[in-house]
Design brief:
5-stranded mixed sheet; 3-stranded antiparallel sheet
């Protein structure tokens, strides 16, 4: 009996857990070895339309952020600036950096402001090879879906993972870097692999997430999912108690008369 009850409780927990996971539509779904689409139009800091495929001619460190992010986007970009400073590879020659906003509402002026800030802080003659872009919602979704960089809007902000993506000269995803810090030696080896069109599994997969803790205005679906999960757990608990209190039929021996 208790085995059956334990099995029912396990099924209830798994079902409610699956309902919860359906809401978590964000994170990294690695697409290592996949080629990113070329015909995606972006706007640079000077409001010029550029084709994504025309930008990629060398190993490229690709980052998706949004410029007014109150959380991990700035640490991600600071981590990029740090690897530019510490790496013995030459920005603009050995590799380049492309940063794209995932918020289609952000204007070109924000991309221009971010680029000016990091170019000034880097004190690097080739800092202009770190390029900042904005795009419309279709272009953003096309690129992020292809890259496996899954995010969702939460109020005025976004829930997303902190990760950058190394792309080969032929736009193939070579490797993912999780978090906000990249080891210089790791980066050097990864760029060499990307230059040779080699795709590698990520060495470290410690995902960090940027959340918006403000309560969403529309919680209908969330309430239904959570209520359903709680209902299943309550039902399973009730079943467990009911079966525990139900008397077990007495077993009698064939050789012993009933008293």
């Amino acid at each position: 009996m208790f085995g059956k009850v334990a099995y029912l409780l396990f099924c209830a927990l798994m079902w409610s857990g699956n309902l919860w996971s359906q809401e978590k539509t964000y994170g990294i779904l690695e697409r290592t070895g996949q080629v990113l689409p070329a015909d995606v139009i972006l706007l640079d800091e000077n409001s010029r339309q550029v084709r994504f495929g025309d930008l990629i001619d060398k190993p490229t460190l690709l980052s998706f952020v949004y410029y007014e992010c109150p959380g991990l986007c700035s640490p991600v970009m600071n981590g990029i600036a740090e690897i530019i400073r510490k790496s013995d590879l030459r920005l603009g020659i050995d590799y380049q950096v492309i940063t794209i906003s995932v918020d289609y509402k952000e204007p070109v002026s924000l991309a221009r402001s971010k680029k000016a800030t990091y170019v000034k802080d880097l004190h690097n003659a080739n800092a202009q090879y770190w390029q900042f872009y904005v795009a419309d919602s279709v272009a953003i979704k096309t690129l992020t879906d292809a890259a496996g960089w899954v995010f969702k809007r939460s109020g005025n902000d976004f829930v997303h993972s902190a990760a950058t993506i190394l792309v080969t000269p032929n736009r193939m995803i070579s490797q993912y870097f999780y978090g906000t810090f990249i080891l210089p030696m790791h980066f050097h080896l990864a760029v060499n692999d990307a230059r040779a069109e080699i795709a590698n599994a990520s060495r470290v997969k410690d995902q960090k997430y940027c959340y918006n803790f403000e309560k969403p205005t529309n919680e209908t679906y969330s309430t239904i999912v959570h209520s359903a999960g709680i209902g299943v757990l309550v039902l399973a608990a009730f079943l467990f108690i009911w079966l525990s209190l139900t008397p077990t039929p007495r077993q009698y021996s064939k050789d012993k008369p009933i008293q």
